[in-house]
Design goal:
21 helices, transferase, 4-stranded mixed beta sheet, alpha+beta, binds protoporphyrin IX containing FE, membrane, globular, heme, metal-binding, 2 domains, Cytochrome p450, 3-stranded antiparallel beta sheet, Cyt_P450_sf, about 525 residues
């Protein structure tokens, strides 16, 4: 009898054999179970074949490229296995349903990793508790009001003025090296990616906390023979803070991807995990100190309440939440909202500016048209650093350039939605608990919605007489969870576009080099070498 034979051989096996047998049985049961679930899943869709334990983790790599390949190979709806099953949507009409204003609140259920980082159910981005999210959203909306954006133009202009000073200083150092006596006729070859990531760090920091990170100063100091007058200690402090933010962003991926067991018990992963946790503590501590100092300032000098940074607004806003009495925001909530602003607002804006620069240099006709708009609305005779929001709102062609750039190169290439009740999407019925990946780039280049979808053509957002379906433009997401920083980001980008191009000639240092982009959570322009000179 075969079963009797098996029992006999188990009885006579030694401990090691028994251990191997139990181990092999567990593995085979896991694999059997994995593929049983895979082959009996509801609405089976095409997608890369998953492996037990890692799913399609080995295929994932550069997210933007991966989505593009999936869409090309498997179509506008396909599936992917990571820690669980995800449905990838790349067609606007499938996605728009998930952006319905009253539905689909949840982005991603909390994971043990994001809980351990202290992100879950605080602030906005990782907040999946509707009541708590709604409370924060009201403060956030108040802090980012039109009045705030209008006032923020002054500090943004000031940082831009400082940036111009650094360029001029470096350009003149170059000119004197080349023994060029006409100091105003300088040219500078430099990396826009480094400058504008620094610029948006500084802008985000001053608008959110009222303090500088001195990122552009720090970059200037690495390039120049003469150092800036800002004390080294301040520059270093700002640098440490920005590096901690970058490391925190990296840790979000690490903590989402690896299981608690791997992070806590496998030595190599444990030391990395501990280093990320120390970094988290350093960063949270930094934010907490900034918040404490501001509270003291407000108590001791009530006129500080008039400050226009978001931190002060978050502290002093009087928000009534869904019929409840006013509850001021706790320091922890304020900290997580500030963190959201830094993580969501800085790199996305810098990368968009770099992508715009690349497209403008590649399309001189678009650049010409843009310059004639800028020169007609902001005459050359007007000062360099005095643009107002009223000026910026008139720049309709510049706005179309921003839209077209974020259509072709959305800086956040994807978002998620998690369903909490049964629904119908893309012609299939889905049970509650289904996870969708929304592939912005796929939707924004879909031939069903755009004529010549791969061509950079801002006129599609400027002229109304075309067949493009603008509802398929969604780089800021949609529905309840739409990006709350959309207007601020657009204002900063308009200011940069008009100020930089009004005052400088900008061309690519190497015309034949492709755009350098790496995508993990954000599509990051890793380097953009340009040549700039004053525009006469
Ligand atoms: C070009 C610049 C930006 C782009 C392309 C962008 C894009 C996005 C996208 C795609 C989402 C997800 C939306 C969804 O799931 O439907 C998002 C969410 C978010 N963004 Fe932005 N963003 C930008 C700038 C900013 C700025 C300047 C801030 C802050 C001042 C900001 C703060 C946030 C926050 C807090 C969320 C989470 C909202 C929530 O979960 O309710 N973003 N952004």
């Amino acid at each position: 009898m075969p079963i009797q034979n098996i029992i006999e051989s188990i009885k006579s096996a030694n401990t090691i054999d028994l251990f191997i047998l139990i181990f092999a049985t567990c593995i085979s049961t896991y694999i059997f179970n994995f593929y049983y679930k895979y082959y009996t899943r509801p609405n089976p869709l095409p997608g890369p074949f998953p492996l037990p334990y890692i799913g399609n983790g080995h295929n994932y790599g550069d997210v933007k490229k991966f989505y593009g390949q999936c869409q090309q190979k498997y179509g506008d709806i396909c599936e992917l296995m990571l820690d669980r099953r995800y449905i990838i949507l790349s067609r606007p009409d499938y996605i728009i349903k998930l952006f319905a204003p009253q539905q689909f609140f949840m982005r991603l259920p909390n994971s043990p990793g994001t809980v351990e980082l202290g992100m879950c159910n605080h602030g906005l981005f990782f907040n999946e508790n509707y009541k708590s999210w709604n409370y924060n959203k009201q403060f956030f909306t108040e802090a980012l009001s039109t009045k705030f954006i209008d006032a923020s133009i002054i500090p943004i202009n000031q940082i831009y003025e400082e940036l111009c000073g650094y360029w001029e200083s470096l350009g003149k150092q170059n000119a004197s090296k080349k023994k060029n006596n006409d100091n105003n006729n300088w040219t500078l070859e430099t990396d826009f990616s480094a400058w504008f990531h620094g610029f948006t760090n500084d802008v985000t920091s001053i608008l959110s906390t009222g303090k500088r990170t001195y990122s552009i100063t720090s970059y200037y100091n690495t390039l120049s023979i003469n150092k800036s007058e800002v004390p080294d200690a301040l520059v270093e402090d700002g640098n440490n803070f920005v590096n901690a933010l970058l490391k925190f962003l990296e840790s979000l991926l690490f903590f989402s991807f690896y299981s608690p067991f791997t992070r806590h018990y496998i030595p190599m992963f444990r030391s990395k995990s501990n280093s990320y946790l120390n970094n988290r503590d350093y960063l949270y501590n930094k934010f907490d100190n900034i918040i404490k100092m501001r509270r003291t300032e407000i108590e001791e000098m009530p006129e500080t309440r008039m400050k226009t940074d978001m931190l002060t607004s978050l502290m002093t806003a009087e928000t009534i939440v869904e019929g409840e009495n006013f509850k001021p925001m706790t320091d922890k909530e304020i900290r997580m909202n500030l963190l959201d602003i830094f993580l969501g607002g800085s790199d996305t804006t810098a990368d968009t500016f770099c992508f715009m620069t690349y497209y403008l240099c590649k399309h001189p006709n678009v650049k010409e048209k843009m310059l004639s708009e800028i020169d007609s609305i902001i005459p050359k005779s007007s000062g360099k650093f005095c643009l107002s929001c009223n000026d910026l709102r008139k720049l309709k062609y510049c706005e179309a350039i921003i839209k077209e750039t974020t259509r072709l190169m959305p800086p956040l290439p994807f978002t998620f939605r998690h369903t909490t009740s049964e629904c119908e999407i893309a012609g299939y019925k889905w049970p509650a608990g289904t996870d969708f990946h929304i592939n912005f780039e796929g939707a924004q280049k879909h031939p069903k919605c755009w004529d010549n979808p791969k061509i950079f053509d801002p006129d599609r957002f400027y002229n109304s007489d075309n067949n493009d379906d603008r509802s398929a433009w969604m780089p800021f997401g949609g529905g309840k969870r739409i990006c709350p920083g959309k207007n601020l980001a657009t204002t900063v980008l308009l200011l940069l576009l008009s100020s930089v191009y009004k005052n400088y000639n900008v061309e690519l240092a190497n015309e034949h080099e492709p755009l350098k982009v790496h995508t993990q959570l954000i599509s990051n322009c890793t380097e953009l070498k340009v040549r700039i000179s004053p525009r006469t």
